[in-house]
Amino acid sequence: MANDIETLQNMLKEDPSNFQARRELSVMLLNNGFNEEAEKNLRYLIKYFPKDAELYYNLGIVYEKLKDFEKAKTVYQKAVELSPQEDFYYNLGEVLVELKDWGSAVAAFKKVLESSPNDSNSYFNLGVCYFHQEEKNLAMDAFQKAISLNSKDIFAYFYLGYLYQEDGLTNFAKESYKKVLDISPDYSWAYYNLGSIAFKEGNPEEAKEYLLKTIEYNPNDIEAYKLLVKICIMLNESDQIIEILNTALSREANGDLYYCLARVYKYIGDAEEYHNALRSALKNPLTLNFPKDILQQEYEYLGKKLGKNQEIAPEQVMEEYNTDVDNSNEEEPENYTDEYNEDEEDSDYDEEDEEYSENDYSDENIEYDEHNDETEYDKPLEEEHEKDVEYGDTEE
Fold this sequence. Notes:
- The chain is 62% helix and 0% strand.
- The longest helix has 16 residues, at 292-307.
- The protein has helices spanning 2-14, 19-31, 35-48, 53-65, 69-82, 86-98, 102-115, 120-132, 136-149, 154-166, 170-183, 188-200, 204-217, 222-234, 238-251, 255-268, 271-282, 292-307.
- It is elongated and about 85 Å long.
- Helix 3 (35-48) runs antiparallel to helix 4, helix 10 (154-166) packs antiparallel against helix 11 and helix 14 packs parallel to helix 16 (255-268).
């Protein structure tokens, strides 16, 4: 293939006006991931053939690959204007989904269905758009239609499961998620949502099995670890959840997981390990979504108690923590790495320091966000439905 590209490039060096060679080269470059080079050649051709819809279509594909969705939208709209073909509308619809222009995307996919009424991908995408427009009934109808046309559409099943779960129709939700797993046994989010349903239905053992499957297939699913902590404590299996968390942390440090570990050590009354886990959580602020100011208070208060050789009594019930904190709008978190270097002696815990009175940080005065007992479940993935890409005709 490289030789073919080189051959076409040599032909163009000899004759830059060989438009057929340039068109073939553009498609070949596009097929092989040379997107910037493909863009240059397609834009060159468009100067000479400004009414060639296929050129705009191929240029749209280039911009999609470059993640420049605004430019992709513009050239796809030009392609549709010149030649309202099904593939042009479909790709325009996908770009509009990326841009979250749900209404315009609906119109584009409906255009596809006018000429191809059995296009399951378009029905799926309609379902996604209606979902985001909070048109639940229309979304369900679209996903069900997608499934009727493609019984292997795991994403349509997953969205349906989610919508059923939102409406409290847990039996239908479980049926949909299990269908996902029949088709794709490694789909971790289906395991997670089944686990959250089992937990809310009062079946912690079943929930635990689903959550263990979740982290087997997605070891980075923090929400699964959070719920596992709660369940293992409920089942008096603190040793197992400590082992699970340490195994995960041995692969990659994570502030949220360190805080989960801290909660377990607090529950069993291991003050030293509780303190160490809090330290590690604070030293990983970029992956810490729990309230950092609360952890800071907790860490300092515990350090004071340890400095006075005061014991931490085990908890009777594990203290709840908020799993729904959204720090996405926070400024860049402060880096605690230097302040809490394990090789340095902590200076915050001087018994003479009046700044941290025991009354200020007593258990009663530390406010923790209440955790909603209704465990959150993951929202559907914005997975793309793969559609065979057809590049423009290479013949003049």
